[in-house]
TrEMBL record:
Keywords: Cell membrane, Membrane, Transmembrane, Transmembrane helix. Its main location: membrane. The keyword Membrane applies. It comes from the Bacteria. The chain crosses the membrane at residues 56-76, 136-156, 168-191. Residues 34-152 form the VTT domain. It holds the Pfam family VTT_dom. It is found in: Cell membrane. InterPro entries: DedA_domain, VTT_dom. One of its GO terms (cellular component) is plasma membrane. This is VTT domain-containing protein. It is a multi-pass membrane protein. The keyword Membrane applies. It comes from candidate division TA06 bacterium DG_26.
Amino acid sequence: MLDSIIDFLHHNVEYVYPVLFLGSFIESFFPPYPSDGVFVFSAFLAGRGVLDGSKAFLLVSTGNFIGVMSIYLLGLKGIRPYLSRWISNEETISRVDRWFGRYGDKVILFNRFIPGIRAPLCFSAGLFRLSPRKMAFYSTLSIIGWNGLLLGMSSWAGRNFANIERFLLRYGVIAGSVTCVVVVWSLIWFWRRRKHS
């Protein structure tokens, strides 16, 4: 079955690259889209000589960058002007703004390594005014680091594609779960502190 897919893609390779680009862009607006799995498969195909690994890396990384900057700008320009309508306490908004100003670059730097909440983090970075320059710079580093890691496994992926896919699934579930617990705990702590004050 896998050989049939590879053979089909080998003869229709001109369609694969647009799918890689569009998929990596769509992920920012539709997180369930399995862009990592698709890119790992493209790395596998590159290892088998079906695709050009450098071209796939460039297209996926470009799609990722355009996607994250789009969702960031949506938060910054589209929603931020109306934020005070939903959060009446200006001090709360200012506090989160300061937090993002201090730690936002680090959050974005590791953003690609936290599957499941990439889009919400980028949206929040815009919503709470992380500077566009920092957003672009640290997003680029994060994208290159993560995609480079995936592409670097391409030669090994040809022999162990199923194992890599299982690893990404488990990593995504574990990383997403841990992050959600930390976020919920932080919100509870913040709410209790605010209530007592």
